[in-house]
Structure formats: structure tokens, C-alpha cells
Amino acid sequence: MSQKDYREIYASTEDGGVQFAASADRWHLYEDHVHLAPHHRGGDLLRFEANLKPFVDDPSRQALVIIDMQNDFCSPGGWTDASGLDYGRCRRAIPGVARALEVARERQMWVIWVYWHNRPDLRNLGAPTLYSFKHTPDQRGIGQELEHGPVLTEGSWGARMVDELLPLMQEQDIHIEKVRMNGFFGTHLDQVLRTQGIETLLFAGVNIDQCVTSTMEEAYFRDYNAVLLEDACATSSPDFCYDAVVFNARNCWGFSMTTEQFANARPFAAQGERP
Q1: Quick check: is 30 in a domain?
Q2: Does residue 14 sit within a domain?
Q3: 40 by DSSP, 3-state: which?
Q4: 57-113 tens-digit pLDDT
Q5: Which helix (H) or strand (E) holds 72?
Q6: How many CB atoms lie under 10 A from the CB of residue 7?
Q7: What radius of gyration do the chain's Cα atoms show?
Q8: Residue 74 a catalytic site member
Q9: Is 178 part of the annotated catalytic residue set?
Q10: Angle at alpha carbon of residue 265, lines to 94 and 27, rounded to 5°
Q11: Which of 57, 58, 81, 178 is catalytic?
Q12: Catalytic: 243?
């Protein structure tokens, strides 16, 4: 393809593919995979056996985004537990997050922790957000006291990462404190990603149907390459909520795969060469 064709949407590539978008943001679509980085000349390209379609990418521009793996969601005595929901269902994400972290460290990927961190005076929250989590007068809402302290408040036990993941955090990791379900809203997440050249985001955490999905969908809206790590996500909601997110991750927002598929990505034969 000539240089001018890099600006032509749906242009045919020299190796039988179809170009999506233009210039450095382009993808190449083939029958058996999608190449997310056809313009990359350096680095080690990997093929990931994802759904709905395998994709090829450069791990040096990927980041693992871990959302809300906090005591209030995943630990006994936390907010989920006190609300009468099954916090154990959220804990199902912990082993997958640990596996994803191990792979990310091996590939020297950025690791980004996104989590609720509300002001003690709750001036960062409006009525609609407060109502989302307090539907009756006697229900404990964000910022209200539980056995271990105020719910999802800066410096509280409930806002801290679960014990299993604390030792896996590293000083160079990026921390994004949020005050809505969407990890982009009112935070510097987008600026961090742009300045570090990160274009592909792999999502893990809880709840898959709330904070994970709203952040993943926003990433898709902003033209990041979005990948859901299915077994590194969980929710205390009914199973159909989990299934709906996986369906949309595959069919609308990007891709989904397991942590095993993430770990077992294999080298792509050569730049621009089909596997």
C-alpha cells in the first residue's frame, strides 16, 4: 500500500486485508485475525487468541487496567457484604487478576490501578450517584460508617486493595482515584495513557457490569483498543449481567479472552506477515 493509502478508509492492503481508520491509528482486518499495530516496526508482536477474533498487537503499548479490587467489594465486613450481596462472587476475580499481573510484569507492561477514593465530606458526589448505592433510608451508602470505617472513602479500610493483591502492587504502577463508576470521568486516566503511548487496555476487576464495563465502554468511545479479561473480572450481580458484558465486549467494544489466552500469546511471524 502506498503512503497516501494510509488515509483511505477500507483500503485494501498488499497482503489481502482491509484497512480500518487511517495513519498510525489504523487496523488491518483479515479473515483469521485483526492486526492492531500494522505500523509498528520495532518491538515483539504477539498474536492473542481472543474472541470474537484473534488479534495481533505490540505489548509495549498495552496496559493492564485493574478496577475496584477493594475491601468494600471483595472482603467480609465490606460494603458488598453489609448490603446483603455475595461478596464471595467478587472474590472470584482475585486469582485471575493475580495471573494477569504476573503476565504483565513479565512483558514489562504498565499496570494501572483504578479505584473509588471519595472525599470524606462527599462533596464530589451528586444525588444520582448517591442514590445508586442507597435505595432505602437504612441502607449504608458511600461515606457512611460500617464496622471497618466509612464506605469507599479516602484512607479507609474499605477503599484499600484486598490483602491478596497488596503485595503485588509496585511503586512504578499508576494509580487513578475515581469518584464515579467510569474510570475516565473526572480523572487524569486519559492523559496518562496518551503521554505514555498506551493504546491497548486489558480490563480486570469488579464489578464487571458496573465500573469495569463503563470504563471499558468509555475507552472504546475514545478509540482505545479494549480487551476484557473474562476470568479476571467478577460481579455480585446475577450471572446474566456478567454474560451481557462479555457478549458486548466481543461484539461491540473490542475483544475478550481468558488470562490463559493472555499468557499464551505467541510471537507473530514477522511485521506485516500473516500467521
Answers
A1: no
A2: no
A3: coil
A4: 999 999 999 999 999 999 999 888 888 899 999 999 999 999 999 999 999 999 999
A5: helix 71-74
A6: 12
A7: 20
A8: no
A9: yes
A10: 110
A11: 178
A12: no
